[in-house]
Amino acid sequence: MNKEQILKKLSKKLPAGSFFKLSEQTECGVVPSGISTIDYALGIGGLPRGWMTMVYGPSSSGKSAMVLQAIGNYQKAHEDSLAAVIDLEKSMTPEWAEKFGIDTERLVVIRPTSTEEMITMTMQAIEANAFDIIMVDSLGAGLLQSEIENDKTRMAGSAGAITRMVKAINSSFISLEREIKIAKDSGSDTEDFIVPAVVLINQVRVNLNSMYGEDTYSGGKALTHMMGAIIHLRTSKASGDKIMGTVDGTQMRVGWMCTATVEKNKLAVPGKSAGYVFVFKECPEHPFGIDNARSVADLALATGVARVEGMSIFYPQPDGTEGKVVGRNKFQQLMHDDKELVEFLAETISNGLTDNAEDEDLEVVKEINS
Known about the structure:
The protein is an alpha/beta fold and 370 residues long. It has helices at 3-13, 36-42, 63-77, 94-98, 115-127, 145-150, 157-185, 292-303, 328-337, 339-352, 360-369, and strands at 30-31, 47-48, 52-57, 83-87, 107-110, 133-137, 197-205, 216-217, 227-235, 243-247, 250-265, 273-279, 289-290, 307-309, 312-316, 322-326. The strands form three sheets. Strands 3, 4, 5, 6, 7, 8, 9, 10, 11, 12 and 13 form an eleven-stranded mixed beta sheet that branches. Strands 14-15-16 form a three-stranded antiparallel beta sheet, covered by helices on one side.
């Protein structure tokens, strides 16, 4: 009996769809975030389908806004796209969603009352075969049913439940992968299968570890093993990064520069960073939202990808030549008008912002490429 016959015999003993050669595995699809620098930092062009991505950071750092931007961006390009928000924080409103260009008719809000319901409802949303993006907002907002009924907080109770949740989601993705494999093997159409990108929002917790520069978050370190990517989001406190505008006749801060570091990445090189501008209060000087083109323009100048000489700004172009405009406003307008240039500069910036991550996977990749 040759090896092929042995493999065929083995495949019949295992559950249908669970056995395949790695060469048969298809590339994971993505949902572009609509923020070029983030998509390039992730290395695959967006949020991975069939995987969980955790976005964590301090309060008001724009975690949910980043995902809502992705939902609005994807809906604009796909008129039949649906998204779901598991809204534990009870923060979603039509007015807020519409600011990100989201069609509220195609955004389903699911509100659990407990951590257990959060787990069940998230699983059901994945298995519904309807959603391109599922956002859980947020892991830290859940409360165990036992805590609700007994008014007692069990040490590590929620953390254990969150760990079980991510394991269950991972199992659900594997089951979906099996179904698609069975359909392919039988010659059936697989286009009707929708594999979602699941994004888990988490907060940084302040404790003794914070004093030593170590961030902790709801669910603990155990949940990170199941993540396809982990994005650490934070805002700059530097005075030069403040976005100022006029609101009701008063000059005030209306936005900030956000920095995202991909701390873990199973699908590409980890350790890359990205930045973008988020304007959270509309004003005459700045439109609301995440301005992708402006973010790339500002970052190109901040990182030295584009340089200033007098009133002129010089920047690299996709064809290898150097472009020139006069004035920052014209440079930003150029970014709005030239999508190809935005994508090129975003990739250049992302490559330049790569951190010397401690993740062993990054060091292995560096060694292989050297």
